[in-house]
Specification:
By secondary structure, the protein is mainly α. 51% of the residues lie in helices and 4% in strands. Among the domains are: 44 residues, no CATH class; 189 residues, no CATH class; 75 residues, no CATH class.
Length: 655
């Protein structure tokens, strides 16, 4: 009989003492805050594993052995100097083709007036005969809206699989760092191509020169839109980018600049803009428009002159706060949250002396004794993306599972969806990643991955939120034809209202119980979107809607149906791992050896003695007290459940 151990929600609190309770070693304890390079005699398998965990997404035993066979300097060089590593086998993102009419997403405020004047919107005829005259334009609006989000979610899966398979792990780890640092989100851009181009720009500059990276970011169309510098013009400066480039991107909040500096610097960036991307033929590009630039004298950060954006960036880089902030943030990302002031000054000085080239700084950090000290090893809480990718990497998978779904898990349940940082400050990170709910979700994800049940996990990218999928039943007077996703035809198929009602009842009662819970935890915007409050002042657009020129409820549902058909489905793959074969390769014979083998394979810190004993007892019971017999199916089942316990333990959340 199979038995289960539940760590319980209290396990989240266990993480706090774990962060500081690793067994102390007299030598490595003395390494704290020591930037001197680790010596060859101190280099071993465990330290190579730590390097791969922090500078990438963990490694398999074979990858760790290969790295540990190098000298420390060679190992760090192999990760940091990744340009010579061939990554051509990594597949490019394959678009679904969400713009069949040649037009991209635009706001209703832009589209409705044009539709009224010209009869055209989004490249299609915006009107029709009969009731809801302008419904085609509204339908296409919502189709593009949902398609943009769904395609971006496909791109999030693609990027995560790139992290999983890349031979350049530090390239993707740094790109993820800069994505968080220069946080830009699809939630505002609503153009997945701009977001992909933005992240690709970050990847190209990830380990290069920080000044060149900063200029590229300032001129990136996605950033120009995200922080409104596209609207920053002479006579009407927009301060958003000027504020954030100092506060979040370079100097740090409140470190040596004033509100007046922000206002003056905004004038320096006037004229750095981009043109709207409305059709597939429009090219997103940076435009330095001299007619929109304020060429008058400006004074900020103690300097005066007729500065432009390039000058502003150079002046920012001259400020002592900038190298401290950038070096400190990289240190916290790769080493630990606690940053000694002397260490910060040393790293900042090195960054300046290298003219802001990042490689020397990165190598100093990753080679330092401090990086391998007790204070640093196994003291970081894994981000959701790192948790999911590293788990699959250590399982030697080449695909992220579709059951359970990576996108739904990372975003809805764990709180980190690539391309969707919550705001310009990025993800809070660190201890915010873990609470009782997210720790339980992490364990549930591992269980669903190791024991996949596709029937219990309907394709989440082909089922709309609860409030939206009920629209055909809520508004029968509009004769909305309900649709459901067909795995056989791989498209949305029409059904009768009676069939649809039974379909939704089945989803709510059985397979969709989990999804309904997730939907219920999120704000349901459907009622507000479909039924504006009559007490609110009515815009011209809402007056038209109330006059039944179009109906938003019809558009919301129709948009979902059409978007599901436009966007390629995410693969419904399941995990195929033979744990008996892994244990046999590790020459494991007993339950105790098996627990220790898998703990060392997956964990950065040892299991607590009591937890280790409980897991050994569990596996011993599953095996009936007998040695492992790899010819028996029951052995595979027992090992799989044991690995689930290890990967659900508080220790596994640390890297």
């Amino acid at each position: 009989m199979s038995r289960r151990i539940a760590w319980g929600v209290g396990s989240a609190a266990v993480l706090l003492p774990l962060l500081s309770s690793a067994p102390a070693d007299e030598t490595t304890s003395a390494w704290t805050n020591d930037l001197a390079p680790i010596e060859a005699g101190d280099w071993n398998y465990d330290r190579a594993a730590h390097l791969l965990e922090r500078a990438g997404f963990g490694g398999t035993p074979a990858e760790i052995e290969k790295l540990s066979a190098l000298s420390p300097a060679e190992a760090v060089d192999a990760l940091v100097d990744y340009e010579d590593v061939d990554a051509s086998q990594l597949p490019a993102f394959e678009p679904s083709g969400i713009y069949p009419n040649g037009h991209k997403f635009r706001s209703l405020q832009e589209i409705v007036p044009k539709a009224l004047l010209t009869g055209m919107a989004f490249g299609i005829k915006a009107s029709q005969e009969g009731p809801l005259r302008f419904q085609p334009a509204i339908n296409e609006f919502y189709t593009l809206l949902w398609s943009e989000h769904m395609e971006m979610q496909r791109a999030a899966l693609w990027w995560a699989e790139r992290m999983l398979n890349t031979p350049r792990p530090m390239e993707e780890k740094l790109t993820l760092f800069w994505h968080d640092h220069f946080a830009t989100s699809q939630s505002k851009l609503m153009n997945y191509e701009l977001m992909l181009a933005h992240v690709d720009m970050l990847r190209r500059h990830a380990n290069g020169n920080f000044r060149e990276l900063l200029v590229a970011v300032a001129q990136d169309p996605a950033m120009l839109i995200w922080l409104d510098n596209k609207d920053n013009v002479k006579g009407k400066p927009n301060e958003n980018f000027a504020r954030e480039i100092m506060e979040l991107f370079t100097m740090g909040e409140g470190r040596g600049y004033s509100e007046q500096d922000i206002r003056e610097m905004a004038r320096a960036f006037t004229g750095w803009t981009t043109k709207p991307v409305e059709t597939v033929d429009d090219k997103a590009e940076f435009i330095d428009n001299p007619k929109l630039h304020d060429d008058g004298e400006k004074t900020f950060l103690g300097r005066s002159g007729k500065f432009d954006g390039y000058d502003a960036i150079d002046i920012i880089l001259e400020q002592p706060a900038t190298p401290r902030y950038i070096a400190g943030k990289l240190y916290k990302y790769f080493v630990r949250e606690e940053l000694d002031q002397t260490v910060n000054e040393q790293l900042a000085r090195q960054l300046v002396e290298a003219n802001y080239d990042l490689k020397p700084l990165l190598k100093t950090i990753l080679l330092s004794k401090d990086f391998y000290s007790d204070a640093s090893v196994g003291t970081q809480i894994k981000s959701p993306v790192h948790f999911l990718v590293s788990t699959c990497r250590k399982l030697e998978l080449d695909r992220l599972p579709g059951v359970p779904d990576y996108v739904e898990t990372s975003g809805t349940q764990l709180g980190q969806l690539l391309f969707y940082p919550p705001n310009v400050a990025g993800w809070p990170g660190d201890r915010s990643w873990i609470n009782p709910a997210t720790l339980l979700s992490r364990g549930n994800y591992v269980y669903a991955m190791l024991f996949p049940d596709p029937e219990a996990y309907p394709a989440p990218d082909k089922v709309g939120p609860e409030g939206y999928r009920k629209i055909p039943l809520m508004f029968p007077e509009y004769d909305i034809v309900p649709h459901v996703w067909s795995e056989e035809s791989q498209k949305m198929e029409p059904v009768s209202l009676a069939q649809y009602d039974r379909h939704l009842a089945g989803l709510s009662a059985g397979m969709m119980a989990k999804k309904e819970k997730n939907d219920a935890e999120k704000p349901d915007r459907a009622p507000q979107m479909m039924k504006p409050d009559d007490s609110q002042p009515k815009s011209r657009m809402s007056q038209i809607a109330h006059g039944e020129q179009f109906n938003l409820a019809v558009g919301v549902y129709t948009g979902y149906v059409q978007a599901f058909d436009r966007v390629k489905p995410r693969p419904r793959t399941t995990v195929n791992v033979n744990f008996s074969a892994l244990a046999e390769q590790g020459q494991v014979q007993t339950a105790e050896e098996a627990v220790d083998y898998f703990a060392r394979r997956f964990l950065s810190v040892p299991l607590a003695d009591q937890r280790r004993a409980a897991i050994v007892d569990f596996l011993t019971g599953e095996l009936g007290g007998k040695p492992l017999d790899f010819t028996q199916a029951a052995t595979e089942e027992a090992l799989r459940r044991t690995v689930h316990l290890i990967l659900s333990a508080p220790e596994y959340q640390l890297g």
